[in-house]
Amino acid sequence: xxxxxxxxxxxxxxxxxxxxxxxxxxxxxxxxxxxxxxxxxxxxxxxxxxxxxxxxxxxxxxxxxxxxxxxxxxxxxxxxxxxxxxxxxxxxxxxxxxxxxxxxxxxxxxxxxxxxxxxxxxxxxxxxxxxxxxxxxxxxxxxxxxxxxxxxxxxxxxxxxxxxxxxxxxxxxxxxxxxxxxxxxxxxxxxxxxxxxxxxxxxxxxxxxxxxxxxxxxxxxxxxxxxxxxxxxxxxxxxxxxxxxxxxxxxxxxxxxxxxxxxxxxxxxxxxxxxxxxxxxxxxxxxxxxxxxxxxxxxxxxxxxxxxxxxxxxxxx
Length: 317
What we know:
CATH architecture: 3-Layer(aba) Sandwich
CATH class: Alpha Beta
Order of helices and strands: HHEEEHEHEHEHHHHHEHEHH
Number of helices: 13
Strand content: 15-25%
CATH superfamily: Alpha/Beta hydrolase fold, catalytic domain
CATH topology: Rossmann fold
Structural class: alpha/beta
Number of domains: 1
Mean pLDDT: 91
Distance between the termini: 46 Å
C-alpha cells in the first residue's frame, strides 16, 4: 500500500551533456504575466541568437509540480534540463509555475476554487504573451502528462504554430486514475472504493468519506477540480487541432502507457507519433522496474533523454 500511495502523490500532487556543463552554458531570465488578476511567474531560456528564434511554452504535469519539473521532496529538474538543451540548439522556451504553485502562489489561494479551465486560460495568456514578442519566429506548446491536455486546449484557443504531447494521456483522467489504481498488488477493495468515489464525483456529488490512503487522490477540496478535469477526452480534443502535432511517449513510463499515445494518434491521424525506448514519465532513461524507475524522480543529475531532444529540435526548427 505504501508503494501505491507514493505513486498517487506523484500523479496528482503529481542530452547527452553532463548536467553541470548544460547549466553553465545557457542564460535564464525571470518572466511574469497577469492572468485573471493573478501574477504567474516563469523562466525564459534563450539561445545565443537574441531574436528570430522559435520558442516553446513548457507546461508541467499535475499537482504541485513547479516550472522545473519538481515537487516537494522530489527534485529531478526534468523541465529545467530540457529547456537548457533546447536553448543550446537554438530554441527558446518559457516554463512557468501554475497558479497557486511555487512562486505563483498567492494570498488567499485555495485548491477548492481551482478548476481545470483556469489552467487552460493561464496557458492561453502565456501563449499570447509569447506571440506578442517579435523576437520569436514561431510559438509552440509542449505539455507533459496533465499538461498535455492543458496545452492542446490552450494551443488551439490561442492559435499556436504547433503542439507537442509529452507522455500525455489519451483517455479521460478518471480512466487513467482507475488504471493506475488497478496495478497488480492493489487490494480489490481499494479498486472498488476508487470506482465508487469516481462515480460520485462524475455525477456531481461530493464523496465525503475518503479513506486516509486515498486522501491524496480525492481530498474533498480537489473534487471540484477533478470533476472539471474528468469531462475532457484528450483523444477527442487533439483531433480539433489543425496545425502540426507531435506525440511523444516514453516506453518505460509507469504512469501513462504507449496505448495512450496510440489513442492520441487515432484522434489526430495527421500527427507524428514517436515512442522512445527507455524513456520514463519525467523524460529520463529508466528501468521498467517500478522502484528503480521511481528513483529517477528524485535524481536531478540524470540528463533528459537524448532522442527526445532530437525529436523536439526536428519538429520545431
